[in-house]
Structure formats: structure tokens, C-alpha cells
Design goal:
This protein is mostly helical. It is built from 8 helices and 4 strands, in the order βααβαααβααβα. Strands 1-2 form a two-stranded antiparallel ribbon. The chain has a two-stranded antiparallel ribbon with strand order 3-4. About 6% of the residues have low confidence.
Length: 186
């Protein structure tokens, strides 16, 4: 039954011959709507890794598999691209409630409820030149994050009046130059 155990070799010490649990495997296969149900019905027993069997029959794994299949079907049936942060309609972006860099919620009250070491510092835009400097940086960086930031703030006339907020960590990471390559050992 190496189809379940994709790239692993079946060795005797870590596998189990499943004959008594075949109905469970068949039910899991039917619930997953995968191609193994017919194969399992035709077999009296299968050899499979213990961990693979547990993972394959686990209810949370089955629901995750269903969810993933539904998302794949939804993305292939739609003509429009998937909804991501970068594709959010930027005209409806709420600068009062979201970080202008990452797009995540920027709520001071929610941050105060967190343990101090996990809090993210939130700042409000206080100068008119802030927008120009960020737009210049976004043009220079030309990566996905900078394109999203550029789209958010380009048509907003006054970020101070819009009560724009940002996370300190997001601002600092945006200021760091984008090398475009991997950092560390390769």
C-alpha cells in the first residue's frame, strides 16, 4: 500500500499489515473522495506504515484534505485570481484599523491585552512627507510587499488625515534593503 506512504520505503519494523482495519481505511478513503477506495475494496489486507495509517484515518486530516480539495476546485473553477492580501481592493483599505505595510489589524487595545514581550508597537503617521518617502522606497524595492504598499497609499492624499497606522516591526523590515537572494548558507 505504498500509495499512502508516498516516498517512504516499506520496511518490516515500521509497517503493519492491515486486514481487520480495512473498513476504517475504506471509510477514510470515501470521506477523502480520493482514488484509493476502489483499490482498498479489492484488497483483503494492505501493508502500510503505522504513522501513515494513523494520519490517513485521523478525522482532522480528513477534514483538512477535504478543505484543500475544495479550495483547489474553487480556484480552478473561478476566472479571477485567488483573494490574497495583495489583491484586496486598495480603495477600501481602512488605514485606521490596519497596518499600511502588512495589512494586518493594528489595534492598540488588542495589543495591550497581550503579554508584553509579544506586543507589537503601533505608530500613527504624523508627517506629510512620510507618504513620499515610503512611495520612493516602494519604487526602489519592487517586490510583492512594496507593490501592495504602493497600491494602498498611492491614491490616498493625506495619510495623517486618514489616521494611518503601522507596526514598528513592519516599518523596520520595509526599510531594510531587499537583496533578492537567499541569506545564510546555501
Amino acid at each position: 500500500m505504498s500509495q499512502f506512504c508516498f516516498n517512504k520505503l516499506l520496511t518490516e519494523d515500521e509497517t503493519v499489515v492491515v486486514s481487520r482495519g480495512m473498513p476504517t481505511l475504506i471509510d477514510a478513503s470515501v470521506a477523502r473522495s480520493d482514488e484509493f477506495a476502489d483499490y482498498l475494496r479489492s484488497q483483503k489486507s494492505v501493508t502500510i506504515h503505522v504513522d501513515c495509517r494513523k494520519s490517513y484515518t485521523r478525522k482532522t486530516s480528513i477534514s483538512a484534505s477535504k478543505r484543500q480539495r475544495e479550495e483547489e476546485q474553487a480556484s480552478t473553477s473561478k476566472v479571477s485570481p485567488p483573494h490574497t492580501r495583495a489583491r484586496i481592493s486598495e480603495s477600501s483599505f481602512c488605514f485606521k484599523n490596519h497596518c499600511l505595510f502588512c495589512g494586518d489589524e493594528a489595534d492598540e487595545e488588542a495589543e495591550k491585552k497581550k503579554v508584553k514581550i509579544y506586543r507589537r508597537k503601533i505608530h500613527k503617521v504624523s508627517t506629510l512627507t512620510f507618504k513620499d518617502s515610503i512611495l520612493k522606497l516602494a519604487k526602489d524595492r519592487s517586490d510583492d510587499v512594496s507593490k501592495a504598499v504602493f497600491a494602498r497609499i498611492n491614491f490616498q492624499y493625506d495619510l495623517v488625515a486618514a489616521d494611518a497606522k503601522y507596526h514598528d516591526s513592519c516599518y523596520k523590515s520595509f526599510l531594510r534593503p531587499n537583496t533578492g537572494g537567499k541569506i545564510g548558507r546555501q
